């Protein structure tokens, strides 16, 4: 990376950190009430205005073209305060990557050129499922050279926000699946209410019913799994960066609390048990930091076996985040389970983000398969 690129990344990190502290931190608890409370629409628009949704998108598609490295920097800083926005960005990026992998830059650029607000640019996509493992796909019918979708697609992330989605579909009885771009504003599409999830409440998902809704095929017939695997492989570092941001937020909160809380006539930071817990958290974070940095380098450089490295990194960092957020709750004692400090939210978010691109046990088996091939 050139010195100019490094300077750009540092400036981007500062901008993302300032945005997260100013727009996310103060209202974290209130935002987490969604879908029973208001959605942070203003925050979403400001993130769009800062090009957070365009960062990794190539110039030719109407993006900034800064790559996975810059995307990871933004996600880490944002998720240090609230991972819901990070998951929204990652969902949109997954849909973009599928379209890019299919050679449909034209579809993305068409939206980028006319989008003046976040919801006009956002793409919905099933972020928390691998259709080859758990078959949540729409049924495809082809008539007169046109494609139509029917059936119910569960847990379509951003389906209640975006007006367009990239979704998997297959003909009845067909083993393989394909991807389709579908307009959610059609009268033949019924979008359900946001599903209350474990974490990431402001990254809403909905069950969506298609009743012969017209859709545009993306990529070749039956190439859905290949497109998904290619897109997910490039974005595993981004998913890991979300977990890393959550870890750092948990450590910041635990350390600040230990510096302020007194018991037995002294700050609890002075207790050996607290020092050991904070040390364990810091060590796990440092290792995760190095893993993410090395993985980004491998992915950007397309090093031999980069897909394997990216998957292993995501699994490892996401598991570490669960441990660190557990320690973060424990460091605060009883109040760690309350909403006031955000630790219980980080614990839920860390568990939820593990399901990016499919369930963790299935991803571990996928990694074993990659190892066996090499």
Summarize the helix and strand pattern as letters.
Answer: HHHHHHHEEEEEEHEEHHHH
Shape: globular
If you consult CATH, what is the topology of the largest domain? Butyryl-CoA Dehydrogenase, subunit A, domain 3
According to DSSP, the number of beta strands is 8
Low-confidence parts: none
Strand order of the largest sheet: 1-2-6-4-3
- Name the beta content range: 5-15%
Mean model confidence by pLDDT: 94
Broad CATH class of the largest domain: Mainly Alpha
The CATH homologous superfamily of the largest domain is termed: Butyryl-CoA Dehydrogenase, subunit A, domain 3
Q: Over all CA atoms, what is the radius of gyration?
A: 21 Å
Summarize the structure.
The chain is of the alpha+beta class and 374 residues long. It contains twelve helices and eight strands.
Describe the fold and architecture:
The protein is of the alpha+beta class. It folds into 3 domains: 3-121, Butyryl-Coa Dehydrogenase, subunit A, domain 1; 138-222, Butyryl-CoA Dehydrogenase, subunit A, domain 2 (Beta Barrel); 225-373, Butyryl-CoA Dehydrogenase, subunit A, domain 3, CATH 1.20.140.10. It is built from 12 helices and 8 strands. The strands form 2 sheets. The protein has a 5-stranded mixed barrel. It has a two-stranded antiparallel sheet with strand order 7-8. A hairpin with a 6-residue loop joins strand 3 and strand 4 (178-183). Helix 1 (3-25) packs parallel to helix 4, helix 4 (67-79) runs parallel beside helix 8 (224-260) and helix 8 packs parallel to helix 10. The longest helix is centred in the middle third of the chain and has 37 residues, at 224-260. It starts with a helix and ends with a helix. The mean pLDDT is 94.
């Amino acid at each position: 990376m050139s010195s100019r690129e490094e300077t750009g990344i540092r400036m981007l990190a500062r901008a993302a950190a300032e945005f997260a502290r100013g727009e996310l931190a103060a209202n974290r608890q209130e935002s987490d009430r969604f879908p029973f409370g208001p959605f942070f629409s203003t925050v979403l628009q400001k993130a769009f205005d800062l090009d957070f949704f365009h960062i990794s998108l190539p110039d030719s598609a109407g993006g900034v073209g800064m790559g996975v490295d810059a995307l990871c920097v933004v996600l880490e800083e944002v998720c240090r305060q609230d991972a819901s926005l990070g998951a929204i960005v990652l969902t949109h990026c997954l849909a973009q990557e599928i379209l890019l992998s299919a050679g449909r830059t034209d579809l993305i650029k068409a939206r980028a050129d006319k989008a003046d607000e976040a919801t006009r640019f956002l793409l919905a996509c099933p972020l928390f499922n691998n259709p080859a493992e758990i078959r949540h796909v729409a049924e495809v019918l082809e008539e007169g050279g046109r494609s139509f979708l029917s059936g119910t697609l569960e847990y379509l992330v951003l389906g209640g926000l975006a007006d367009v989605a990239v979704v998997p579909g297959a003909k009845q009885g067909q083993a393989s699946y394909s991807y389709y771009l579908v307009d959610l504003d059609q009268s033949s599409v019924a979008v359900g209410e946001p599903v209350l999830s474990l974490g990431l409440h402001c990254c809403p998902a909905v069950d969506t019913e298609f009743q012969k809704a017209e859709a545009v095929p993306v990529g070749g017939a039956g190439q859905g799994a290949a497109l998904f695997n290619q897109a997910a492989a490039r974005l595993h570092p981004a998913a890991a960066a979300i977990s890393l941001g959550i870890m750092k937020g948990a450590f910041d909160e635990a350390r600040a609390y230990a510096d302020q809380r007194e018991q037995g006539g002294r700050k609890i930071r002075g207790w050996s048990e607290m020092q050991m817990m904070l040390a364990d958290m810091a060590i796990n974070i440092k290792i995760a930091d190095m893993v993410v940095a090395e993985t980004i380098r491998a992915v950007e450089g397309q090093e031999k076996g980069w897909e394997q490295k990216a998957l292993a990194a995501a699994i490892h960092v996401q598991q570490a985040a669960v441990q660190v957020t557990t320690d973060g709750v424990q460091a605060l004692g009883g109040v760690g389970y309350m909403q006031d400090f955000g630790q219980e939210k980080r614990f839920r978010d860390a568990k939820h983000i593990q399901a990016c691109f499919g369930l963790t046990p299935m991803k571990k088996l996928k990694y074993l398969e990659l190892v066996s091939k090499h």
